[in-house]
Design brief:
single chain, 209 residues, mainly alpha, Arc Repressor Mutant, subunit A, Tetracycline Repressor, domain 2, 9 helices
Length: 209
């Protein structure tokens, strides 16, 4: 049975922190190796060298472990880079995403989580929270570009950041084409050019009051 405190809401120290770290590392390894359908709390406990009772009591379900893993990944992500220009910032974002997706463990992990999110509502909500955190982290680079006069005033920051990542995830999930730094740079350049041209200006009815 899961505890009343939701996964990822505690900031424990000492042994509790070490147990959480070990369990999430084990869950990530298992997810990358076997996918979501292959996850089992008993196997995760074994990999983490943690008692089954501890894992069942702390998390309770596989989806709760995945939710906590995504929370931890969002917390551990590198902070936003500030270069002083829109293109520089978007290129830094794109290269960070690219490096993550081509990493043997991280790329496989994201594939598994995304696949699970298509059929499991809890995983879908957890994945949405993860990406919302990343959008919130990087959207200020668009806001700053608006303030510098690089972009139209009503540009939607989240849409610009999504436009950078979308081609990279498409290559990861739907093609066998290379996903290297040059692809990341092109994605950033295309998003920056489209943003400057007004492609991501909010429609009048969507503008905040």
């Amino acid at each position: 049975m899961a505890t009343n405190t939701g996964p990822g809401t505690l900031r424990p120290g000492g042994r509790t922190a070490r147990v959480r770290e070990a369990v999430l590392r084990a869950a990530g390894d298992a997810l990358a190796e076997h996918g979501f359908t292959g996850l089992d709390l008993g196997d995760i406990a074994r990999r983490a060298d943690v008692g089954r009772t501890t894992v069942y009591r702390r998390w309770g379900t596989v989806t709760a472990v995945v939710a906590d893993l995504l929370t931890d990944m969002a917390e551990q992500s590198l902070p936003r880079t500030e270069t002083g220009s829109l293109l520089g910032d978007l290129r830094a974002n794109a290269r960070l995403v690219q490096r993550t997706l081509v990493d043997p463990r991280q790329g496989a992990l994201f594939k598994a989580v995304i696949a699970a999110a298509t059929s499991d509502p809890d995983t879908r909500r957890s994945l949405a929270r993860f990406y919302r955190a990343r959008l919130d982290e990087w959207s200020p680079c668009v806001t700053q570009a608006i303030e510098r006069g690089e972009l139209p005033a009503d540009t939607d920051p989240a849409e610009v950041i999504r436009a950078v990542s979308a081609p990279l995830y498409y290559r990861l999930l739907a093609t066998d084409e290379p996903l290297d730094a040059s692809v990341a740079d092109r994605a950033a350049e295309a998003a920056a050019a489209a943003a400057r041209a007004g492609a991501y200006v909010r429609p009048a009815e969507a503008k905040p009051e």
